[in-house]
Amino acid sequence: MPRLLIRFLIAVSLALVAATATITAAAHQHRPAKVDLELIGQVINSAPGVTPATSIQYGYVSQLDDVAGWPNESAAPLTFFTDTTTNRVVNNGPLRIVSRTGRLTIYSDPSANGNFADPSSFRDGTPVLSATVRQQVILNTLTGAFTAHNVNTILSRAPFALGDDQVLLGRVGGQFQTVISGQAATATPPSAYMAGYTFTTRGRVASRP
């Protein structure tokens, strides 16, 4: 077989391999990979009489679907920080219903330096998801126990490294919900302790680019 023909066939084979790899990578990039978040955190509310009343909720992602999990704030590379303003408060017997709006940001922080004594440590990473938040909190004023429900609409997102994977949370315009249980603190700060989880209601929550 002439050398020129052999070189041509080798070149064609290499091109086919490269094209196949590109197609495979592109397919992988768009493959749906649903991700649920489990959250552990704390709350700081503004002092009584402050107008408008505010509430920040911050902490770490303890579980990212079946991808990875972390035992505490000093080990978790994913953190969250929610900044809200109170729009309405309704009292119904021992229940207090608080409606808020605000912004949720999830951060990637490979240094994993979260510290509940320093709330700002949960927002010193790189933002990987930003969402508007509509929140309802139902507080039992007799026991200090509360539940909260957030509707989150994604504004922006960015890929981040997690082990050997590149993870991309959500889709711009997509929604996911957060369900929280908590207990008001007897001594402040913080104002309360909380834990919860998220689930998708519209669009994908995550994919690996």
Major sheet attributes: 8 strands, antiparallel, barrel
Q: How many distinct helices? A: 1
The residue ranges in which pLDDT falls below 50 over 5 or more consecutive positions are 15-34
Following the backbone from N to C, one meets helices and strands in this order, namely HEEEEEEEEEEEE
As a percent range, the share of strand residues is over 45%
Distance between the termini: 43 Å
Shape: globular
Mean pLDDT: 85
By oligomeric state, this entry counts as: single chain
Model description:
With 209 residues, this protein is mainly beta. The protein has two domains: 1-30; 32-207. It is built from one helix and twelve strands; from the N terminus they run αββββββββββββ. The protein has one helix at residues 3-29; strands at 37-45, 54-64, 68-69, 78-92, 95-108, 126-140, 145-157, 160-162, 165-169, 175-184, 192-202, 206-207. The protein has an eight-stranded antiparallel beta barrel with strand order 1-2-4-5-6-7-10-11. A hairpin with an 8-residue loop joins strand 1 and strand 2 (54-64). It is globular, with a radius of gyration of 23 Å. The chain starts with a helix and ends with a strand. The model is unreliable at 15-34 (pLDDT under 50).
Concise summary:
With 209 residues, the protein is mainly β.
Task: Walk me through the topology.
Layout: H1 3-29, E1 37-45, E2 54-64, E3 68-69, E4 78-92, E5 95-108, E6 126-140, E7 145-157, E8 160-162, E9 165-169, E10 175-184, E11 192-202, E12 206-207
Antiparallel strand pairs: 1-2, 1-11, 2-3, 2-4, 4-5, 5-6, 6-7, 7-10, 8-9, 9-12, 10-11
